[in-house]
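Collaborator request log, item 7. Partner lab (contact: R.S.) asked for a structural prediction of Beta-xylanase to inform their binding assays.
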Amino acid sequence: MSARVTAAADPGRYGARMGSAVVGVGRAGAQVTVRQTRHAFGFGNIGFDLIGLANREDHSIETGFGQAPAALAETVAERWLEVFNTATLPFYWRTFEPVEGEPDTARLQAAARWFVERGVTVKGHPLVWHTLAPQWLLGRSTAEVRRLIEARIRREVRDFAGLIGLWDAINEVVIMPEFTAEENAVTPLARELGRVGIVRLAFDTAREADPTLKLVLNDFNMSVKYERLIEECLSAGIRIDSIGLQSHMHQGYWGEERTLEVLERFARFGLPIQMSETSLVSGHIMPPEIVDLNDYQIPSWPSTPEGEARQADEVSRHYRTLVAHPAVESVTYWGITDAGAWLGAPIGFLRADGSPKPSFDALHGLIKGEWWVPETQVVADDNGDVVVEGFAGDYELVVDGRVTAFSIAAGELPTP
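Returned to partner:
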């Protein structure tokens, strides 16, 4: 006799994500309750909208990339926690430290702590970036800029120790030395050091401050230039823990074929892939002639019923593709609500009034449905064992009122 609890997911497609555990309860025929409590896979979203809630603020403060109105915070928080287990918090230097020597540390610590207390992994984004570099850096020598960047990295790593162990160490290096859209003090330093040099600066400074950190190289450039940068960094001995790939699809869904082609090109490095910034619109598609997404900012970009149906379909397809690929370790969606969304685009899973779109239900149905072991009652087998098969993650078993926590690691499922 075998007591078995099994997830509904297709092991043929998601076998690399799934595993099994045999849990002994010590008594044959015991009534057992099994439930999953967390995915090992990182299902992420930005946590910008909940910084105010964590700080008990009744108003919204600019983060650099938008924030939902404070009146929606409770609704957003409830929906956020229903689905996601990884939060990205904003450390854009210009908005984090608008006045030199006055960083917004306490507010971001409160936000990070709020998430950690609810079992959420927190990622800091980013430690180094040319965009949104502080204006007070302008006019400094490159040597002084370097010193200040190193001090900033050490400070953030130190101040958020125990709360944030995962950082985008540096963002969008491919374009960094060539950036001309806005005068900033980081681009001249990147030009002087070279791309590999500025990457080394970010990674080595952060790792010296805390050797336990997990550090990500993040970029939107999916061309061979990014592949070449990774190759050069690895050849130079820079330890990269994960490769971050952005996929803001305001000009239309990539589709499975292109997504898989991108994943395969970057998986060849043998490093985990984080789909670090992902978005799909539920309104009209941005015109194809727009080169820089930031150049398309219009008075109103509404979500529509047709767009919402399309978004739900594309979200499901995109997440299925990513979760099925063994190299991908996490997906971070770039906004849960249309209220205050980046560039005013209707990319959220919630409408501006906080109501869920079909895409929210579709994603919830995957993460907490098809890919989740629900609370299940079963009778222990003749050996007093229960076999649990499901996605890698954390689980609980309850028998006679006693709770036993256990984990399932990804690996081959047993033969039925």
